[in-house]
Amino acid sequence: MTQHRDDERVREVRIDALAFGGDYNPDQWSEETWHEDIRLMKEAGVTMVSLPIFSWPQLEPEPGVYDWGWLDRVLDLLHAAGIRIDLATATATPPSWLLRAHPEMGPWDAEGRRLEFGSRQTYCPSSPIWRENVARMTRAMAERYGEHPGLAMWHISNEYGDHVSRCWCSESSRHFRRWLADRYGDLDGLNEAWGVNVWGQRYTSWDHIEVPRTAPGPINPTQLLDFERFSSDAMLELFQLEIDVLREVTPDIAVTTNFMSMFRDLDYWDFAAREDIVTDDAYPEPADPASHVGAALNYGLMRSLKGGRPWLLLESSASATSWRDVNVPKAPGKIRVESLQAVAHGSDSVMFFQWRQARYGQEKFHSSMLGHRGERSRSFQETKALGNELKRLEQVRGTRVRSRVALVVDWDSWWGSSAVESLPSQRLQWADQARAWHRAMHTLGHAVDAVRAAGPFEEYDVVVVPNLYIADQAQADAMRAFVENGGHVVVGPFSGVVDATEKVHEGGAPGPLRDLLGIEVDEQWPLADGVVERAFYDGDTIDVPCWAEWIEADADVEVRGVHASGVLEGRPAITRRTVGSGSAWYVSTMLEPEGMLTVFRDVLRSAGLPARRHVDVDAEAVTRTDGTTDYTFLLNHGTAPVAFALPASGVDLLTGADAAGVVELGGYGAAVIASPHAASVPFISLTAPNE
Length: 691
Ligand code: GAL
Hints:
Layout (H helix, E strand, L loop, with lengths): L18 E5 L7 H14 L3 E4 L4 H4 L9 H12 L3 E5 L7 H6 L26 H18 L5 E5 L14 H15 L2 H7 L27 H29 L5 E2 L1 E2 L8 H7 L4 E3 L9 H14 L7 E4 L18 H11 L4 E4 L25 H13 L9 E2 L3 E4 L2 H9 L10 H14 L4 E4 L10 E4 L7 H12 L3 E4 L22 H4 L1 E8 L5 E6 L2 E6 L1 E7 L4 E6 L8 E8 L2 E6 L5 H14 L12 E7 L3 E8 L5 E4 L4 E3 L5 E2 L2 E4 L4 E7 L8 E2 L5
Parallel strand pairs: 1-2, 1-9, 2-3, 3-4, 4-5, 6-7, 7-8, 11-12, 11-13, 13-14, 14-21
Antiparallel strand pairs: 10-22, 15-18, 16-17, 16-19, 19-20, 20-21, 22-23, 23-28, 24-27, 24-29, 25-26, 25-28
Helix pairs in contact: 5-8, 6-7, 6-8, 8-13, 10-14, 14-17
The chain binds beta-D-galactopyranose.
């Protein structure tokens, strides 16, 4: 399947500017409108657009009958205007004629219902008919446009798994069996892995195995977990199939598929390894005043998926979305600061869904760069100003984000804590834990990278592991080596519990991490809903909601936090152990945001890293560098003024003004300070309003 899996060559996107623009759907408009589009795109500073993402039926109206004319004309117009093209393979959604001719290629849900045509992505990722047609369409696109001078990169499919990431049809069952046979060899291997003696589930024939459709009660956890892995892999095969065609026809053109930020259903580490550049679609909730914190985590993941290389923000919204229950618009100025945040975190682009706001269809209320009022719309005025402002940041393109802290992102543990039905508590969820831990580091002033559970960790001082439910020896060994060499690892609750087949490690949690952490978990101790216990931490009292553990600590372990109420009163809650020249921490509880800050301040202090004394979650500072110049983005995500204390003077690229000492930013304000490269990662503290 994967002739290019080990292809380490990374093709550059063919664009010599920060990419600015959006999804373009000219087939929803008259040709006359296209000319106006081009004029306004130039005015707005557009450098790249993405198309024709959902246009398969317009390009192949009948099987084997192509209509390329309109796309030829649009691409030529764009190219003549100097606008680069993120060219979609047009395989995001099947034409109706394909599905009607082959109804078996449609997706099924877990209840065994076939999903109808009438939306998008009506396909089963495992369907041979779908795959055959995808390869055919991709080849047709590549052969027709592979040499087009405007082509910047290939945009494969669109947001894999947005609507259908798992399929429960009989073809999926057949594919699942093949995947299981590959993994376990024979039926004995599968029976052993799935622990089938529990509840009488022994299989005597491969044909008896199905995808986990709705069953009378909780389903075998290993079956559920394997279905998550299989489903991610099935989509990955689909991706690889297109990559293989494109590599064959256009070996020098970069390929990508647009991700959906921290998306549970697909293991993006695997996807990113196959493509040339990571691209992301980001829709922070405008109604949530802290949505930029989640965005920082998502962007940290995006830049880390390919080892710190710049990525592209391919979609965002100029104001409101239309798929939430209530779609709140973005206040004036918010588009700018949110867009600059993506650039701060390593994006070499700011792009939107979509260029021109639709007048019909499912997304007509979704904001666009060019709103229904055309050039008079606020979104056009604001995005145009942004597009022109971005030209001042050209030197930032290609630079990398500097970070001392990384957070372990592990899809297996994410699936384990969310797909499996029988757990001590459903309140401890991987994604919530990751967000809470990231939020604390963000608040204390650190840009956080993402890293796999087995590393590499060497670039960092501190690695936080919010939850690693499924852990193996190789991961534990990598963490241990990091700590012995002076690194600091913080492991969160319910980690090292099971192995890859969902079997509890010998002796219980934290399994392979036991030697490093120096603790054992006697019992998981989830708290009833609404119960909040307390712990003492270094003279402070912190709240413990939802989750605790009865742990036993070795004699050489320092107990930093102690339970101060409930059955566990007096027992260790948070521990630290010196190993080699580093330290290994275990946080056995869930914590409220304040408590997280208390603990992480202590972690940072003992790792020799700074932490903000005065905190304001709205005030973000991130530094990119090319090794000669540091570019420090100062961002105010709130409406109240904030004041940043600069460690070195420089020039604000957005205004051209000198910047030194304290930089004050008003609501939604931003500055990008260029200063000589500093040996250690610049740390930007905040000045309290009354200081
Ligand atoms: C994305 C999708 C776009 C558009 C957008 C609206 O998920 O890729 O096609 O639907 O959302 O927010």
